[in-house]
Model the fold of this input.
Amino acid sequence: MKRIVFAGIAIGFSILVTMQACKPDPNLDVVADAPLGFTIPEGWPKPFYNFENNAVTEPGFELGRKLFYDPRLSRTNEVSCGSCHQPSAAFAQLDHPISHGVEDKLGTRNSPSIFNMNWHTSFFWDGGVNHLESQPINPIQNPVEMDETLDNIIAKLKADANYPKMFKAAFGDETINSQRIFKAFAQFMGMMVSSNAKYDKYKRGEAGANLTPEEQSGYTVFKNNCATCHIEPLFTDFSFRNNGIAITSVNDSGRAHITLDAADMYKFKVPSLRNLRYTWPYMHDGRYNNLDDVMNHYTKGITQSATLDPALKNGVQLTDKERSDLLAFLNTLNDEEFVRDPRFQEVN
Amino acid sequence: MKNILPLLLLVVVIGACKKKPDPITPEVPVTKNTNGELRISISHVAGNQALQVGKGWYKTENGDSLQIDKLLYFLSNFKLVKADGSMYIEPESYYLVQHKNDTDFTIVIEDVPPGQYSKLVFLLGVDSARNTSGAQTGALDPNSGMFWDWNTGYIMARLEGKSPQSTNHGSVIYHLGGYKGFYSVLREISLDAAMKIEVGKPVNMHIKADALEWFKTPNKIDIAKTSVMMSAGANAAKLADNCTDMFKIDHID
Done:
């Protein structure tokens, strides 16, 4: 055994020596093999997407970041992914119930936040998309969002001075195709892990990360009233539920649009409770501007309907003290380090 | 072990400088010389006439008039099966068949081990695994217009045209998609085909694919009732059942 190990080390060393000696082709210097550290935060479950067949590398990640902030991915060259998914808003869009697409067109749903995507089992409010790599094609082609074709985007990127080099650095040659675009996007978005809120530090037992008595009490209120759907540590169970918000004139059928099942009418994906400070307004159509409105909904605004989640039939009963403690606890889920993380800020 | 170690080091050192390493295209063992090839050419017909998109008018089983403008579909997972049940399975076997007037669509199955085969088996559509595995390329590139971006999955087969019987402004639009459970439109098709695969002697199989079969059996389509179909569901599954007898081997040479 020892000999085999020794032989392995010797061979490895000789390879190193010869690599230096041969002066490899400079074109091969930028091979996509420099891994970027994706680590599963302590105590978290295994992610649904773990970069299988898409090892995350620095050039791949940087390409994804450039694409994310590039408005040329839209028909009018004015709307980028980052237009409606801003870092300071935890990659939602602040103060916009509905974001503006090309030519200020409006859809019907609130721009969702982007973080901890690798744990998501589906994407969008109705969960219609089943894979992180298949996600970007939807807003790109949507006529009220970016309204662009994949072929047009590829033509624009090929004509750019930098993109061909960036694709080569990320994937080994200058070929630009939709698969590489989507893999680069997945590398960028998959690396967006938000796990450094006060709550996380408290759970990890880090020095100075104690919850105040109000926050501690709010944590108990959360566990007793919210944790059925907003399961720790991601604060969602990724299921689809009708939470009793009133049906509007849009009459968005939600999950039923995908499953064609009447039992799924008005159900939407349970959003995470992380980073709420940055992601307002709330709900699938951005109807509530602040957490007080959200609390009012759950305590006294539930609309009864055939598909209302059974857990919400009688609403949530909270005393004033419980309510303010709960708000204090939710405040511990805001991850300032994440929204300020320089790796995810706009480039171009 | 001790004795061969210096030799091993020498081999590594010499070997390293000989050839430029190519990280993108690893060497594939050459087996083509020892294996055969099946060439499948598909010609589209409408009943007993050659299909002419944008030109010909045809009568469906229900007696409706129909002009076809577009006919595209995926075929995947080709297998050549022997009488004893053993088979050759083509790796990475995905084709997007697109009709062009007066042109056959050709699929070449390379690298088939020589032998006597009795059946050709393939899937109409893209297997469920490739509908759930993220970004694909080649025939499965979503830029083909054969991909639903809002409800992930391939449009397995697509027929578009015109009909005076249509209740949708004269147009007929069938997009067959869905890969889950009883709403799946994936259909395995098995054609009896006696073929002797030999080295250096490609076998040519000529298939006629009849577009009017979409409207025929077992579910006769009334265009007035079904002018548009663009989501997965029981009706799409019925149309998929019709498509399964679209393919007939005309001859093999």
Summary: The first strand of chain A starts at residue 240 and ends at 241. Chain A has two domains: 58-193, 198-337.
